[in-house]
Amino acid sequence: MAASLEDEYDFWLLDLDGTLIDVEWSYTREIFDRVGTKLGREFTDREADILWSGLTGSRNRQLEEWGIDPTLFWDAFHEEEDPLVRAEQTYLHEDAAFVTDLDVPVGLVTHCQKFLCEPVLDHLDIHDWFDARLCCTEQTGWKPDPEPVQSVMDDLGVGDNGHVGVLAGDGANDVGAAWNAGLDAIHVERVGHDRRGLCVRGDYRVDSFDELF
């Protein structure tokens, strides 16, 4: 790893889904089929992709635009997700291995719920990659709010202004959370601008973490 970028930051924060890991499409499609049956509404491949990957930013806002109650959707969604099946269908991006080379505190800030996140981390054997972890909830707040980011920074002991950090993620919410918390932002574009329908700007914009080092 090139020392320059690593030495630039006292700590790193990372998103999980779409940033370090992803899930096989067949799993996503099956979940949306079952949720659609529960809600009495079919989801197209494009709609499932938008919600799963957060392509338009706030998933709740997108659901509301489609006339779907977010609470009903998420209740049905989480009822249909089996943590062990989700873990088995999850794979690690090859370029995510850079995390193991970081010689500074590393934190995880994810919207993935704890009952799903923990089995995934165990299955991929990446639990020890992170010195602190937070799975966002209504109580902690959701990215792009800075509160969950600040909470992990406090857990890492880097919450004061004397530390310089960076947050890496695959969505606009990650970039917003970084900037709102006073951090630099890395946007890793896993899906492509055409599929996303817009260009997410960050302090660094890459298609792979390999480009950074």
UniProtKB/TrEMBL annotation:
Domain of life: Archaea
Entry keyword set: Kinase, Transferase
UniProt-listed Gene3D superfamilies: HAD superfamily/HAD-like
A molecular-function term among this protein's GO annotations: kinase activity
UniProt keyword Ubl conjugation, yes or no: no
Pfam families referenced in this protein's UniProt entry, alphabetically: Hydrolase
A biological-process GO annotation: DNA repair
Protein name: 3-phosphoglycerate kinase
Organism whose genome encodes this protein: Natronorubrum daqingense
Lineage: Archaea, Methanobacteriati, Methanobacteriota, Stenosarchaea group, Halobacteria
